[in-house]
Amino acid sequence: MIEIVATICGLIYIWLLMKENIWCWIFGIISSLLTIYLLLHVRLYAEAFLYVFYVVMGVYGWFLWYTKETDQGEYKITEWPVIKHVLFVSGGAILAFAISQIFASFTDAARPLVDSLTTVFALVATFMQAQKIKSNWLYWVVINAVSIYLYADRELYVYSMIFLVYMTLAIFAFVKWERIEKSY
Predict the structure, then answer these.
(1) Can you give the pLDDT at residue 116?
(2) What is the SS3 assignment for 44?
(3) N or C: where does the chain have the smaller number of CB atoms within 10 Å of the terminal CB?
(4) CA angle at residue 83 from 82 to 85, to 5 degrees?
(5) For the chain (length 184 residues), average pLDDT per consecutive 10?
(6) What are the extents of the domains in the chain?
(7) C-alpha distances in Å from residue 83, one per residue of 58, 79, 80, 90, 121
């Protein structure tokens, strides 16, 4: 039941985020808190840490969007230069490998490398969402595709299916944000 409520809140979060609605962050926080409980139960520790980060980023996103819209009128979608993506992807891969080695050596973590990769890159993508960086959605397409496998492997089939939905929504959201960015 917790998995289903968290999933529904997660879908509402994505839907509102696609629409650039500030209330997305509240639903993201609720979904993340419920997911932390579930992930600790199935021993996906890096993923659980990721959802703690999502709670923090939910507060940050809410604050950032609220203050930017209050101060500047409209908080606009932007894009990073390619070199910044190269640096984040390279650094993220190195960090994910290091984290996976720690989890593999000192915990009973299931799938430490895949868990660490999805976690590290979800940190980057979530930060990008709060900053309204359009390509965050492309990161999410890849992260969600890998997460489908990860959650199915841990027999969290509802989450696995929802990540298929998230992946599809990320594609649509990228197209929508691209249209919005071009309209400025």
Answers:
(1) 92
(2) coil
(3) N
(4) 65
(5) 90 92 96 94 82 94 85 82 96 96 91 92 93 96 96 88 92 94 86
(6) 2-182
(7) 27, 12, 8, 11, 16
